[in-house]
């Protein structure tokens, strides 16, 4: 498929999947849904690079003139039948950017576990996360009210993710790939680092007290320029848990009766998954073209010479708390106990306490 001239008259070449040029970053990314095998739907992205632009440094981005709009057609001889306006993300103000953000892929199935949401947000706030982008397909009334409390306090942004009825029942995993790449571009130039993961996953510093100090240690021990690291891949470890769901505890029970999995579950799988299996990634959004769920492909990097770093598990790991796991060989991993005082302090104040007790002060 080729992209014809857009409304500004720029000639757009066909996509070369082997090119890793920065010009891809500044062109229109069109998200589509295509039919795959077994009558499932998967998402796809069509990249339209601007011609004759070969950048190797982010500082060179100012020389690229963004097109006004782009059209996608089936052949180069057809007239454009639509015009997608190109948003120039470089115009976003650096003054509004934060250091660390987390994206949560679409929550569906009327999920209503307030305790899981609160624990996820407050543990990450202890570790230094400043903003959360949460994609919502369908949640229960209690979770919705808690989300709105976090939104009101400018901690969470909720993105509605309601797919057409003809698509929602057959698209793979509620369009997860589409959603995480929407989040990548939504946060580009608005955050320095972003991690995309589910509510039962935590990227945990193993030798420091925050994400920032963890990265400082990683940079110190890596034999490469830290500015050339586009992503950080963390190995995955399961923590089997059979803790009671939050719905079995009423708001009147308050916080004391609650068991928070990150502070209660210390038995973990001995096995650390390889970097290519179940891992999650922290990325520099402006350095990527496409975000994949468990790893970043070298072909998805913007700049020639950038790398995808594999984080030594002695510095950081992905803890995944999963109900119903049957693991034969476990080991004691009590790292989260280090953060217990800070986490509990957060759970007893402000938004967390409001959500856990149901003591909302507004209609």
Structure description:
This protein has 363 residues and is α/β, with parallel strands linked by helices. The chain has 2 domains: 22-88, no CATH class; 94-357, Spore Coat Polysaccharide Biosynthesis Protein SpsA, Chain A. The protein has helices spanning 114-127, 141-152, 165-168, 176-187, 211-221, 261-264, 340-347, 350-357; strands spanning 29-35, 41-47, 69-70, 84-85, 98-107, 131-136, 156-160, 191-196, 201-205, 229-234, 236-241, 267-269, 280-283, 307-310, 316-323, 330-332. The strands form 5 sheets. The protein has a 7-stranded mixed β-sheet with strand order 7-6-5-8-13-10-14. Helix 1 (114-127) crosses helix 7. It is globular and about 65 Å long. The termini are far apart. Residues 1-39 and 244-252 have low confidence and may be disordered.
CATH top level class name of the largest domain? Alpha Beta
Shape: globular
Order of secondary-structure elements: EEEEEHEHEHHEEHEEHEEEEEHH
Mind telling me which CATH architecture of the largest domain this is? Alpha-Beta Complex
First-to-last CA distance: 52 Å
Determine Rg (CA atoms, Å).
22 Å
- CATH topology call of the largest domain: Spore Coat Polysaccharide Biosynthesis Protein SpsA, Chain A
Q: Report low-confidence residues grouped into runs of 5 or more.
A: 1-39, 244-252
């Amino acid at each position: 498929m080729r992209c014809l001239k857009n409304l500004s008259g720029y000639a757009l070449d066909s996509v070369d999947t082997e090119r890793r040029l920065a010009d891809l970053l500044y062109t229109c990314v069109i998200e589509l849904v295509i039919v795959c095998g077994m009558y499932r739907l998967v998402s796809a992205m069509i990249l339209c690079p601007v011609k004759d632009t070969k950048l190797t440094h982010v500082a060179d981005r100012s020389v690229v003139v963004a097109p006004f709009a782009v059209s996608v057609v089936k052949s180069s001889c057809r007239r454009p039948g639509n015009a997608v306006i190109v948003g120039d993300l470089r115009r976003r103000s650096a003054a509004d950017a934060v250091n660390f953000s987390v994206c949560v892929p679409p929550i569906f199935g009327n999920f209503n576990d307030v305790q899981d949401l609160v624990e996820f947000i407050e543990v990450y706030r202890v570790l230094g996360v400043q903003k959360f982008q949460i994609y919502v397909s369908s949640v229960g009334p209690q979770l919705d009210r808690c989300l709105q409390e976090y939104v009101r306090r400018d901690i969470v942004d909720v993105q509605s993710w309601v797919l057409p009825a003809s698509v929602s029942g057959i698209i793979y995993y509620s369009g997860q790939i589409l959603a995480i790449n929407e989040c990548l571009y939504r946060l580009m130039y608005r955050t320095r680092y972003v991690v995309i993961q589910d509510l039962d996953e935590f990227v945990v510093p193993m030798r420091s007290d925050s994400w920032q100090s963890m990265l400082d240690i990683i940079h110190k021990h890596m034999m490469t320029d830290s500015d050339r690291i586009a992503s950080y891949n963390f190995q995955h470890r399961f923590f089997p848990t059979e803790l009671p769901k939050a719905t079995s505890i009423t708001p009147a029970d308050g916080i004391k009766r609650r068991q928070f999995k990150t502070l209660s579950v210390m038995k973990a799988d001995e096995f650390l998954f390889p970097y290519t299996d179940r891992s999650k990634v922290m990325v520099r959004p402006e350095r990527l073209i496409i975000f994949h769920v468990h790893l970043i492909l070298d072909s998805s990097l913007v700049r020639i010479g950038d790398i995808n770093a594999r984080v030594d598990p002695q510095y950081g790991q992905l803890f995944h708390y999963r109900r119903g796991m049957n693991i034969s060989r476990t080991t004691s991993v009590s790292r989260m106990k280090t953060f217990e005082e800070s986490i509990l302090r957060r759970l007893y104040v402000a938004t967390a306490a409001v959500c856990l007790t149901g003591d909302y002060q507004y209609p």
